[in-house]
Amino acid sequence: MTRPAISSFASAYRNDLGSDAEAQASKTLKRTTMMLVGFTMLFVYSCVLTLSPAELLAAKASNLPILSVFAERTDSAVFSWLAQMVAIVAICSSFFGLYMSTREGQQGMIESSCVAPIIAAIRFIMPVYATKRVASMRQYEFAANIFSIVMGTIAITGFIASQLL
Question: Where, by residue number, does the polypeptide cross the bilayer (predicted)?
Fold first, then answer.
């Protein structure tokens, strides 16, 4: 059984609107998607059109965000502060989006009992295995990875023990 990433939204619409929920949810999702894409594209186009191609290439070569380039170009502390705030908001929104979708997905998957050890293996053990086997990931091989292996083993063992007892 899988759950959509927007399951809370869909459930609330289903409870409130009954049989009309799917049409209303589609309409709402379409509007919010258009607003998000429109806002993002407006920001991207305004940044690209504000900077010269040479400045864009220099920013890419220096791995600088656009707002940092604006700050250097205008000698304004506002852009430096704004760049940090945008980064913090982006990181927080990414975290909450990932956290909430993972939590909802787990709630749906835990209903089928054989999925829990697979989730534990994917989250705890596979990343450590990848740092050992994938050449480009060897830079992330640390002694602290042992903690991840131990926690994954405890999670899997605890699940198996709970099913057997």
Answer: 36-58, 78-100, 142-161
User: How far does Cα 151 stand from its chain's mean position?
Assistant: 23
Q: Specify the number of domains making up the chain.
A: 3
Helices within the chain (DSSP H only):
7-17, 21-50, 53-62, 66-74, 77-109, 115-120, 126-133, 145-164
Q: Are 24 and 46 part of one and the same domain? A: yes
Examine the domain organization and report whether 116 and 78 are in the same domain: no
**163 and 128 share one domain:** yes
The answer to whether residue 56 sits within a structural domain is: no
DSSP letter, residue 138: G
Per-residue pLDDT tens over the stretch 31-57 = 888 998 998 899 888 888 888 888 889
Range of the domain at 25: 11-50
pLDDT at 110 exceeding the cut of 60: no
Other C-beta atoms closer than 10 Å to the C-beta of 41 total 10
Where does residue 124 rank: exposed (0-12), middle (13-18), buried (19+ CB within 10 A)?
A: buried
CA distances from 48 to 43, 90, 109, 154, 163 (A): 9, 20, 43, 50, 57
